[in-house]
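Our consortium's second objective concerns turning raw sequence data into structural hypotheses that experimental partners can test. To show how far this objective has progressed, the report includes one record in full. It was chosen at random from the queue rather than selected for favorable results. The single chain below, 376 residues long, was entered without modification.
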Amino acid sequence: MAIEKKWIVKEPGNPAVVRQLATELGVDMALANLLAQRGIKTFADAKSFFRPKLEELHDPFLLKDMDKAVERLEVALDTSEKILVYGDYDVDGTTAVALVFSFLRNIHSNLGYYIPDRYDEGYGVSYKGIDWAKENGYSLVIALDCGIKAVEKVAYAKSLGIEFIICDHHLPDDRLPDAVAVLDPKRPDCNYPFDDLSGCGVGFKFMQALASVRHIPFIHLMPLLDLLVVSIASDLVIMTGENRILAHFGLQQLNESPRKGLLSIIKLSGLEKHVITIDDIVFKIGPRINAAGRMESGKTAVDLLISRSDDDAKSIGDTINTHNNDRKSIDREITLEAIEMAATASDFATRNSTVLYNPTWHKGVLGIVASRLVET
């Protein structure tokens, strides 16, 4: 029942660029072509690619509305306003919430976080989450990895006296939410030089901007980069430009001084004595963090990522690892059942699309199963 795979082969690099790179770098034409295919055109481009520098990160204030976002957050910090850090339940969302929360809690105590329930609330900003914020006295919400299309929900929040700062990286609709600020490099009117940041990456740029205004040295942002590289790898954003710089230094942080929660996952993944790579994050660390949102609640992942004690990190890490084992078991069972179901259709291999359904299947793993079926 195997389906023939359709390969999409990238076009060769510009011959003139390839020759120039091969000459200037002293490398084989094949390697020079690979570099050209990745958008590298000059010696300077290649140098940045192989030897990333933090100095090459873009000014966060180049993001549209960044000045408004920082100004509003400064008011909240100066007046001890109650701030809610709100994010999606996947790896990008939970790392983003953990990153912003971890930085802000060092300068602000009136702070909380919220992750919507995957099954009760669904993706992104929810009415239930807004009502929860109102009931608990929050007047400013920082939405991470979500919110760019939450026009009605942000309007509803505004009617309750709650303001939003949105940090997202998804494509917006024609109409943006009426938030205090909408940070999204994919906004048509945003001229930020790099539009492939992860949701966590946009949150990081927000904290970078806040730090610059408060004259907080960049070194105090470095501990956040272990979260950011987990986001970049797990969300499969393009590994060029700013993402490559952040991932490079994020891997250093993850290998040399990971936060307690990530160290717990590293140990449970059998990576404690290894040099951790992007592949390790994609196939071992990320899925464990994601399992919390798939099987129970993404809040558990944030609890782990912001934990400050070894005991808490170990306990929560063990819980998440159990969720991941359960996820793999349920995933295998549903995959086998779906394959058997598809096999009963004699024309399965020639169909343009197929819908397989069973009301008892666990919703948290259906995306994984569907992807696996496509590859079967």
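The partners drew two points from this record. The chain is about 50% helix and 5% strand. The CA atoms of residues 152 and 235 lie 27 Å apart. Both points have been shared with the crystallography group to help prioritize constructs.
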